[in-house]
Write a structure and sequence with these properties.
The chain is mainly alpha-helical. Helices cover about 65% and strands about 5% of the residues.
Length: about 250
């Protein structure tokens, strides 16, 4: 995830939704952008990743994190309120929240994601291979400026106030590690796999995301120390855990 020096999140016109145009993702390619947003938020509620009463981020932050337009997000949230998954509250402490007793299993589009278990596991394995190689190469090639940028992105994730804000920084962090190798071809290949996988990401509890940021911090430390073996091992563990923590693992 490449970033700006101040850690703000630039717009990603391609973003995760790029994966929806890939023939590899036949199960979700047929879904509209509206359906993908509905499915991903509803699945996060069904799996307990979003808790009853939890406030959702602002629509612009959700739009950037999920790679869709704000209008699409507004429509998705409105229909999820109608379905009883979410609710709206007025006033200073209002907004769009997970319903106190959310209706579960009501979004048919989620079945398209459930049917892609093998594809998601394959993408995770592809990312493991690429991530380890990138970490190894970045150990030898990363400039001081590139490492400083990674530090800024780790700090931005520490400050993130929502899963949406964290996700945007996370993407920039991992693409920045790839750029630090100095190999444009590796960046392009890695970016394609990353964005295909991100098409399946759901909202996650911020506490779990902060744990993953500790691994980002450890990776940068290994890069600064020139410890290629440790950097590759951190990268491997960081990605392999997705087999358990993405919805394909959480569905049991």
């Amino acid at each position: 995830m490449t970033g700006t020096p101040n850690g703000t999140a630039p717009a990603h016109p391609e973003g995760p939704v790029l994966a929806l145009n890939s023939p590899k993702l036949n199960g979700i390619r047929r879904l509209t952008a509206l359906d993908t947003v509905r499915a991903r938020i509803a699945m996060a509620v069904d799996l307990g990743l979003l808790s009853p009463g939890e406030r959702l981020p602002q629509t612009d932050a959700i739009a950037e994190a999920l790679g869709v337009g704000e209008i699409t997000v507004r429509r998705a949230l409105s229909t999820l309120c109608t379905d009883g998954v979410l609710e709206r509250r007025r006033g200073r402490n209002g907004g769009t929240l997970v319903a106190e007793q959310p209706t579960r299993g009501v979004v048919d589009a989620a079945e398209a994601y459930h049917g892609q278990t093998a594809e998601v596991h394959r993408l995770i394995d592809e990312r493991v291979v690429l991530e380890c190689g990138i970490a190894h190469l970045a150990t030898h090639a990363a400039s001081a400026a590139a490492l400083d940028e990674l530090d800024l992105l780790v700090a931005a994730m520490d400050r993130a106030e929502s899963w949406a804000e964290f996700h945007s920084c996370d993407e920039r962090f991992h693409l920045a590690v790839a750029h630090a190798t100095g190999l444009d071809a590796s960046v392009q290949t890695y970016g394609t796999v990353l964005r295909r996988l991100y098409a399946y990401y759901l909202p996650y509890p911020l506490a779990a995301l902060r744990e993953s940021n500790d691994e980002h911090r450890a990776l940068v430390a290994a890069l600064r120390a020139g410890d290629a073996a440790r950097a590759a091992d951190i990268a491997r563990r960081h990605v392999e855990t997705l087999h358990r923590t993405m919805f394909v693992g959480l569905m049991g």
